[in-house]
Amino acid sequence: MEEARSRILKVPYNVQELAKQQVGTIPRRYIHDDVGKISDSSMLLPEIPVIDMLAIGDDNFELQRLHFACKEWGFFQVVNHGVSSFLVEKVKTEIQAFFNLPMEEKKKFERQEGDVEGYGQDVVFTEEQKLEWSDIFYMTTLPINFRKPHLFPKLPHSLRDIMEEYCKEMKSLAMIIIRQLGKALRMDEKEMRDLSNDGMQLIRMNYYPPCPEPHKTIGVSPHSDTDALTILLQLNKTDGLQVRKNDIWVPIKPLPNAFIVNIGDMMEILSNGIYRSIEHRAVVSAKQERLSLATFYIFNPVSELGPAHSLIGPNNPPIFPRFHLGKSLQDFSERKQYGKSFIDCMKVETKDDES
């Protein structure tokens, strides 16, 4: 599908409030004709790999399992990750409390026209664009000087304090995973370190209310993440995340005390296509709300990104160009993401493509 490029609009709708009205049908603008069949979780389907972070430092076999997961799935769960379960439970409680706040309190963080950050709907560029059955809160968290003064610093004190600690833990975990990915790829350590140090972190709190017609809409449309690495925390027991594997939507069942990790487009570019950023989506439930928290880690935005020098050569030419990361991200933020649109627009045209 062609990308829509336009100014970012402010949407005067709130799905959580709409769901409270207990309507029998959803408004036309939320109906997606291309949702397709929602996978039945009772079907016998493959599961994404599980990586033991405690074992990976000393176990070459576990490192190879991570390598396989990134090549074949682009998704995996991590256990024994070292993040306090007490901290995680506090995060769950505080985010649930935020979405339970009165609307006038949440509107203090409302996304403004022309801005991608804030509370509300996902970015909308046209009056005709289909809407998604979810409310989100998206904001930059690190570096601290990149935070917008009306968002993170103004959060309710208990939420702000716990998210401050959580964001530090997520950065630490992201850096450990990225370092292990570089090791599995046999990349030059300095090259990976220069890219990943001083990167950016953003978070997205997701709220998916119960929906009277879940088969007609979508919580998050199919897409791959533009970042280097995403770490997802499921906040309650309602599942909804699905990944596309061999043209089948495979539901992900989060393990207790685990994080779901996925490779982003930047990592696919850096690995020269060895690792894959995979399309995923979120479906909604007729009876239950779902909450999740995604943490995105972006390579240093002042850096130049392209296939790692240590991974290309005469027999392995680059399939992506080199480009200034910050400028490309700015340009791409002005477009609606469909599928793997960032990767598709970055690929180098080969003679085979032209024929």
Automatic annotation (TrEMBL):
| Record domain Fe2OG dioxygenase: where | 196-299
Keyword field contains Ribosomal protein: no
Keywords, comma-separated and alphabetical: Iron, Metal-binding, Oxidoreductase, Vitamin C
User: Which GO BP terms sit in this record?
Assistant: coumarin biosynthetic process; response to molecule of fungal origin
Concerning Pfam families, the annotation shows: 2OG-FeII_Oxy, DIOX_N
- Keyword DNA damage in the entry? The reply is no
Q: Which GO terms describe its molecular function?
A: 2-oxoglutarate-dependent dioxygenase activity; L-ascorbic acid binding; metal ion binding
Membrane-spanning intervals of the chain: none
Please give the family membership noted in the entry: Belongs to the iron/ascorbate-dependent oxidoreductase family.
Spell out the protein name for this chain: Fe2OG dioxygenase domain-containing protein
Q: Which organism is it from?
A: Solanum bulbocastanum (Wild potato)
Q: What is the lineage of its organism?
A: Eukaryota, Viridiplantae, Streptophyta, Embryophyta, Tracheophyta
